């Protein structure tokens, strides 16, 4: 007797449970991804009065998103593709979108955890106080901005197949984003670099997050930054999906 | 003309597979019946994996049709995949998952509800009860193959595809795996396996097809293939001990040259 296709809900539940278990068991990587923004946040305690609470929080959240998108998501996709994990799933009655949906769900959950940790540590250690509305809109904006970095990760795994090359590329991009982004936004690297950083994936995310943490002072610049996030996400996801290959050959 | 027989578990009909300009599979046709173990043999690069990948739905044939339990693998891929169990040549699972986690994952994917007691029973059946908390990478080659076969058959599929299932196994593990494959046949299910081992093909396959340069050049029972070709000069010339074996027929038909 022919077997019927299992319900999508059942398949998704099984995939998400396995993907969460994978992230949880990989705690060293998990701790590293979550620790980077928290370490920066704690070490920047003295800068809160100079830069402003919103700049500090938004910069730290941007760094956290970069960590998750580039170091976490990208490397896990590249590794599992190389090992043939995806091929084994794809010979089962599983739609490709459910595999990716499950992977992205785990990353979105990580982004939510990272954001809450940053808010908590910012409040407890750095003494950062923002409005309740700011916390809510900031949280939602972090989830939206996370799509940009997950999209960038997708683009990298779409363009590069070798997991070691993916790993070194993400480290390079991560380093460039943090160093050029952080120093560039403060004008340390000159006005030209500052201008490019403002409209870079780092800059638009940082700007939109800073605006969302203080929604009552929202300006056209913040709206343009959100438009920038959407535009970058569309391009990265579009190209990433187009060039992505499931197999390792 | 393309026809399909609904009683066949697998019906591969005139499929062609291209990689760019290169035609890896050329109008290949064969079928697997209920309660049959069908072997697909061929030298490296002959088109075995491409044929298997097309059946598994990993690549789309440029021509021809493939049906599994009556479902077209291109038009109804999920239905077709739900009715087949697959053991890939180099199966891998997330290294962080334990054997129990992997069983739960694939049971969920195939819509099979398994209690902890049922998982324990299944692992006991394949003599891997002590591997419950182990990761896949911590198992020996034979244990990994047993787990992979268990996962491939966890939903009791009508068709099981096994890509070189006994490669690298010691004789004891290989014999044990043969018995499990024969057990699948006894349940009335069909098995398609690829192998480089002529001994394995002779021992477990009811029918075999020899594929070379993308074409099927012979298809029959192992015994009849030997009988049909025992007088061929090419086969006699490669015979080593005076007695014609399936390996002699295979080398006689596909040539002595080593394939990359």
Task: Give a quick set of tags describing it.
heterodimer, A: mainly alpha, globular, B: 260 residues, alpha/beta, four-stranded antiparallel β-sheet, 23% strand, ABC-2 type transport system permease protein (chain A), ABC2_TM (chain A), transmembrane helix (chain A), membrane (chain A)
Overall 3D form of chain B: globular
Seen as an oligomer or otherwise, the chain set is: heterodimer
- Number of distinct beta strands of chain A: 0
Fraction of helical residues of chain B: 25-40%
* Whole-number mean pLDDT of chain A: 92
Uncertain regions spanning at least 5 consecutive residues of chain B: none
Strand content of chain A: under 5%
Q: What is the element string of chain B, with H for helices and E for strands? A: EEEHEEHEHHHEHEHEEHHH
In DSSP terms (H or I, runs of 4 or more residues), the helix count of chain A works out at 11
What Rg of chain B do the Cα atoms give? 19 Å
* Biggest sheet record of chain A: none
Residues in helix, % of chain A? over 70%
GO molecular function (chain B): ATP binding; ATP hydrolysis activity
Family (chain B): Belongs to the ABC transporter superfamily.
Domain ABC transporter (chain B): 10-238
Protein name (chain B): ABC-2 type transport system ATP-binding protein
Question: What would your notes on this structure say?
Answer:
The complex is a heterodimer of chains A (249) and B (260). Chain A is mainly alpha-helical and 249 residues long. Chain A has one domain. Helices cover 81% and strands 0% of the residues of chain A. In chain A, helix 6 crosses helix 7 and helix 7 packs parallel to helix 11. The model of chain A has no long low-confidence stretch (mean pLDDT 92). In chain B, strand 9 (207-212) and strand 10 (215-220) form a beta hairpin. Chain B folds into 2 domains: 10-220, Rossmann fold; 226-254, no CATH class. In chain B, 36% of the residues lie in helices and 23% in strands. In chain B, 47% of the residues are buried. A 6-stranded mixed β-sheet of chain B has the order 6-7-8-3-9-10, sandwiched between helices. Chain B has a 4-stranded antiparallel β-sheet with strand order 2-1-4-5. Chain B has helices spanning 48-56, 77-82, 99-109, 116-125, 141-152, 171-186, 198-204, 222-229, 233-238, 246-254; strands at residues 10-19, 22-32, 37-41, 63-68, 71-72, 84-87, 159-163, 190-195, 207-212, 215-220. The A-B interface holds A 2-7, 10-11, 13-15, 17-18, 21-22, 25-26, 80, 83-85, 87-95, 247 and B 56-58, 69-71, 78-79, 81-84, 86, 88, 90-97, 101-102, 104-111, 155-158. Chain B: Residues 10-238 form the ABC transporter domain. Chain B: InterPro entries: AAA+_ATPase, ABC_transporter-like_ATP-bd, ABC_transporter-like_CS, ABC_transporter_ATP-binding, P-loop_NTPase. Chain B: It comes from Chitinophaga jiangningensis. Chain B: Keywords: ATP-binding, Nodulation, Nucleotide-binding, Transport.
